[in-house]
Every structure is written in C-alpha cells, then in structure tokens.
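ok so i was messing around last nite and threw this chain in just to see what happens. nothing serious, just curious
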Amino acid sequence: MKQKGLITFTERLYELRGNRSQEQFAKFLGISRPSLGSYENGNRVPNAQILKKISEKCGVSTDYLLGLSDYKQKETEAITAQDMGLTENCAKILQGIKGDDNVYAKIISAMVENEYFPSFALDLDNYLYIVRKSEENIADDNMFEVEVKGNTVREARFYATDSFSSLLSQMAPEPDFKRLENEAWERWKEEHGKHKENSR
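result:
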C-alpha cells in the first residue's frame, strides 16, 4: 500500500507533466523515461538530487512535490499581510475566517484570480476617489453631477457596477435555463412513459 506522501508526489508529478508525453517530460527534466515512469507509478522515490532537479525545472518547491505544502512556491506561502498591503484589521478578519471549507476565502480567491478583477478594482478605486473629491467640492451642486477627472459620481458608479457585473458573470455564469427546462421536460416525458407502460 502506497503512503499518502508518495501518492501526493506521483499525482503532482503527473500534473506537472500536463499534456507532454513521458518521453518529452523526461527529456525536459533531464532524467530517463523509465525513471520518470517508475516515479509516476509510485514504484520508486527520487533521491534528493533528482527531487531538487524536478523542483527547479518545474518552478515548484520540493515541499509542494512531497505534499508538505499546497503552495507551489515556498515564497508564496510565507507572504505576509504587510507584503500584500492589507490593513491590520483586514488581516485579523481574514485570519479569523480562514479554513479549508471557508466560503469567504473561496470567494475572495475566485474574485482576485478572475481576469476581470483588475478592471473592477480600478473602476471601484476611481469611483471611491471621485466620491471623496465630490464631497469636498459639493458646495451647492448636486454631488452626483460634480465632475472629477472627467467623470461624475453617477458615471463612475455605473462603470464600477458594470465591472462588478462582468466579474460576477465570469465567476458564476448564469445557468442555461432553456436547456435545463428542456432536460427536465425530457425526464418528465421519460418517467411519464414508463408509468404508462407499467399500468398496461
């Protein structure tokens, strides 16, 4: 029976190989194809020198390969709240809600990793800036119509909302209700047909 650490190593090695053939990946790593095959099958464990070579060639830490960390880069695991520019209060809140099944952490990760996030962040930052500047210059004017950097508060809010909508639709695309309705209808017809046959 294979040990958990070995299983993790073989899975991660196979994942790093991707669509390449064993021959191609072995050549890339600078090891023989039979050796790579035995590592992937869990029949052999690479020595420290080979492990270091795989780590360097694939740009991942040895801890990740051995299942000691879920972070591919050791540096990433050690990033602090200060490195990320988070406020102390934000760091405390995130620390308090961390966990494998924590919905907040999953949502934050999904948002930040999404391709639309930079655009949303910039539009939101612009909106907040314009709101602050409009409050300073409001005088007798309607705050929503005060123009800052070529945008009114109303326009800036529209852009931020639109960006968030794009981000949300990418994170959780709207279900294909027509397809789901058709599938439900087909299931109902199939079940209805079975009942008719059984009643004969």
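not much to say yet. The mean pLDDT is 80.
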